[in-house]
Amino acid sequence: MADKDYQKLELPYRSVHDCNPAPTPFVVIGAGPVGMTLALDLAYHGHRVILIDDDNKLSTGSRAICFSKRALDIWDRLGVGQRMVDKGVSWNIGRVFFHDEEVWRFDLLPEPDHRRPAFINLQQYYCEGYLYDAIQDNERIDVRWRHKALAVDQTNDGVILEVDTPDGTYSLHASWVIACDGARSPVRAMLGQESHGQVFQDRFLIADVHMAADFPSERWFWFDPPFHPDQSVLLHRQPDNIWRIDFQLGWDADPVHEAKPENVIPRVQALLGPEAEFSLEWVSIYTFCCERMDTFRHGRVLFAGDAAYRVSPFGARGANSGIQDADNLAWKLDLVTRGLAPVSLVDTYCEERAVAADENLQHSTRSTDFITPKSAISRLFRDMTLSLAKETPFARNLVNSGRLSTPTHYPDSSLTTPDTDEFEPTLPLGGDAPDGPIIHGRMHEAAQAQWWLAQLQGRFSLTIFCLEAPPTADQLQTWAALQDQLPLLQVVLVLAPDVYANTLPPGNLSAVADTKGLLTHRYDARDGTCYLIRPDHHIAARWREFDASRVRAALQRATKNSPTTDSCHG
Fold first, then answer.
1. Can you give the pTM of this predicted structure?
2. Residue 49: beta bridge partners?
């Protein structure tokens, strides 16, 4: 599919007179990457969604550009991951420079046989454009541009929104409203809520530069370089020969003055050299905060992405964490709406993603403090750390040019069943399930080379490793019966290749061959090891041998269908 000029698209307005007035299960407010991902995820689970936005255009300028492997895994499930990767610039390597010398090089995905890279760089307007194209093809999603939420009125079992349009206002009834309307969230203000945190007194210049350059597709970060002394600089490659350059300016910099082309161009020339040929595509000055709401649920209104919390841009934590918010929330709203879980399951979105918010805020604050030291002692510590990093491993662990976004783990979540068996700590309980290459087929069908996470689609997955011998007929019958008895559950067998080749067809069970033994390694599996994996690919429970009663109890716990700890919001 040829790329459109997504920055210039004017998206179609639908008159209020052409909109379905019937109540809807879900209204998502805000059609950025988080809101569109959430709308697609709810539709993926079979629900109708109304998505409203007060504008009729996508982003201009690159804005968020770094999207993580975890975000790509989520988008793969929603059918848009491959398009993002095809257009994006894939990268795994980062380099850190002090003055004009490289002091540290790191690889964020050092082992092979992963479907996706550690990160891709992709302008936000492409990301939003590809999500929008998928929404247009989805009949369950009703997207309404230039429809602005004016007021929120909560009822016992839902929300009434007053919505403004060029044709007048109307009321929209929903069971749930999810505000993905950004850092200045109007919905948050309507409810009288605030975000609390820290404003960082520094300014940064973003310059999107068009040029043909032979720099590798890596993340380069300079501390105190000769071309921009006493400050920091970040360089990233994007598609279409666009390069993102971030210049630290200091708190006293005049944002209007610094954004003028005649002041931006010399900074870029100092980095690239006086003979470099380039043109400016987009320029912006930003400051940033680390802040969050006290809780992300208020009755039937939920907050996600920047509307719930925002962090500094160092580490690519904003959009990536918001996409994981959507991933965490969609399956919970799905089960509650279908009557398969109590409403208290929605409170665990607040519980778990508050942990993610605090983790991101902590990492962002530490990164910012390292990048922009505010005292002579802090500056001395940072510079000594950088000087030692080239030769000293312990100093490299202290270098912080922005800890890159990683998925949050939920070992202490009220949905997670504590370990009773020992596992290697490399794969934490509550962590995201690793991927790996497999051969897939229902054993009586033609097998195909695929990826493991593609088999875990929208349900709880009981993964059973059969590594030494084919499962017996009694085992297959037991597992198939359990799957029939528990509609939320799919049973997937992971077999050693020789076991796979000699296993009888197990009826409605799925099976994969661990072709390279990587799943066995990454899951610290032995023959008989079992994992219960949530719809969002987080590990809810695991055991060294199958026990139907333990599986049932863990599934009940993971869906709040049994007594657990108190929720975080009533």
1. 0.95
2. 26, 141
d(CA 142, CA 139): 7
pLDDT tens readout for residues 35-61 = 999 999 999 999 999 999 999 999 988
- Cα–Cα distance measured from residue 31 to residue 147, given in angstroms and rounded to the nearest whole number: 11
CATH superfamily of 16-88+117-195+290-358: FAD/NAD(P)-binding domain (3.50.50.60)
Instruction: Determine the Cα angle at 504 with ends 503 and 508, to 5°.
Output: 110
Beta strands 24-29 and 49-53, pairing class: parallel
Q: Is the dihedral of CA 553, 559, 560, 566 positive or negative?
A: positive
CATH 3.40.30.10 fits 437-558, yes or no: yes
Q: Which residues share a beta bridge with 380?
A: none
Which pLDDT tens digit goes with each residue over 201-260?
Answer: 889 999 999 998 889 999 999 999 999 999 999 999 999 999 999 999 999 999 999 999
Of 371, 376, 375, give the one whose Cα is nearest residue 386: 371
- Whether residue 557 is predicted with pLDDT greater than 80 in this model: the reply is yes
Distance CA 368, CA 402 (A): 8
Mean pLDDT of 291-316: 93
Q: Which two tokens stand for residue 100?
A: 């004009």
CA 199 to the chain's CA centroid:
24
Beta bridge partners of 245: 207, 235
Contacts of residue 167, Cβ cutoff 8 Å, sequence gap at least 6: 15, 16, 17
Distance in angstroms (rounded) separating the CA atoms of residues 119 and 91? 6
